[in-house]
Amino acid sequence: MNALAHCVEALWAPGADPINAALATEGIRTLAAGLPTIVDTPGDIGAREQVLYGAYLSAVAFASAGAGIHHKICHVLGGAYHLPHAKTHAVVLPHVLAFNAASAPSAAARVAGALGGTDAVEALDRLYTRLGAPTALKDLGMAEENLDEATDLVLAAVPPSNPRPVTRGDLRALLQSAFAGSTPRARDTARDAREEQVRREEELTATVLASFRDAPDERLKTVMRSLTSHLHAFVRDTRLTEKEWHAGIGFLTAVGHITDAKRQEFILLSDVLGASMQTITVNNEAHGDATEATVFGPFFVEDSPRIELGGDIAGAANGEPCWVDGTVTDADGAPVPGARIEVWEADADGFYDVQYDDDRVAGRAHLVTDDDGAYRFWCLTPTPYPIPHDGPVGRLLAATGRSPMRASHLHFMVTAEGRRPLVTHIFVRGDELLHSDTVFGVRPSLVKDFVRQPPGTSTPDGRDLGGRTWSRARFDIVLAPAASA
Ligand SMILES: [Fe+2]
């Protein structure tokens, strides 16, 4: 076993070289092959010759490579505490191999291969078991109270070229396990590092979550903790680089800079990420046949003009006339008189009034249902338009191969006493953009027939359209009770 130890040590001792490594590897192979036979049949001359050959190779390898950490440990223990030379080598070797293996992978691979295994430490352990080799310094006369002193003596002698840096703590632990005879385990430094990395990341998240523990508002605490959890998970899942973090900050800064009283880039961002639609979905739980809600969008304006039933919301906006009528009822089918209906839409060029530089008010108005819950008005046949895409959100869509186009739609906001407010649109059946609406606002129940009327077709209210085409749509609105909101 002393010879085997010198062969292993020759793989990383200060004078290790490739020729020597070949001799040492052959030495390990022959010793491992011959020793079990000698244990079984002490008189086997062939096995003894084989082991003698291995011992010779170990001596050649040691003479060239010199003494490493293993040899230093054994000679300190032998010299200072009179431990038996060969048995001490046998006890210490597995612990030194386990200590160095991960830091000397090619040496470990050679040892494993020469011992007929895949893991050097495990293969050596099997050989020790097969041979009944000594395993504990305490069995050789070492006193536990001398381990601290021994540690200091060895530390002073460890060659600086050892493949793994040796701290006093490392060395003390190595001697302790050699003293006790515990099974050595190779340290998987790669796995240790991975576990440490995960521990650091999880600890940081936990620390931030804990920082909200004294928030006086329970709801704020819940929201901030959930936001923190998801934000940290995002950073960890994507392994977000610092450059990407800077790009993200720059993007949000640009979203802020372009936002003003008329341009709300943050809502656009929320819209194109589906966050607006998801918030609406969460907050407008399904209730019977109640009309589905959809995105509010950035173009609603307070204090729109009032029109009477049958009036026109278009104002100065251009487009094909469109007649919309319907009823507002509650979930039981009862009419809702006096419901306020806000309606707004883009013109035929795809712009809302607020997107023009003047202060025009066009394509928006509000009206009130009659005693039967009925309503009717003129507007413009909805046409597709892009969301404003000359800013950071537009660049995001371009960078991700997405279209800025919204499916053609007409906005509604309906409010009535005792009813859940409804913000929704109706969409035009047949519009090719229904399946790629950039803000994810389309709900199948909101797609309506906008029936085109040939020129000259009489209008519901007798209005003269001068021979132009027009369209008409019906939209019956069902409001959920306020209690379910
Ligand atoms: Fe819109």
Provide mean pLDDT, rounded: 93
Q: Structural class of the secondary elements?
A: alpha/beta
Order of helices and strands: HHHHHHHHHHHHHHEEEEEHEEEEEEE
* Bound heterogens, unique: fe (ii) ion
Text of the CATH class of the largest domain: Mainly Beta
The helical percent reads: 40-55%
CATH fold description of the largest domain = Protocatechuate 3,4-Dioxygenase, subunit A
Radius of gyration from CA coordinates: 41 Å
Rough outline: rod-shaped
Through-space gap between termini: 81 Å
CATH superfamily of the largest domain: Aromatic compound dioxygenase
Tally the helices.
Answer: 15
Number of separate structural domains: 3
Total number of strands: 12
Q: Based on the structure given, which CATH architecture of the largest domain is correct?
A: Sandwich
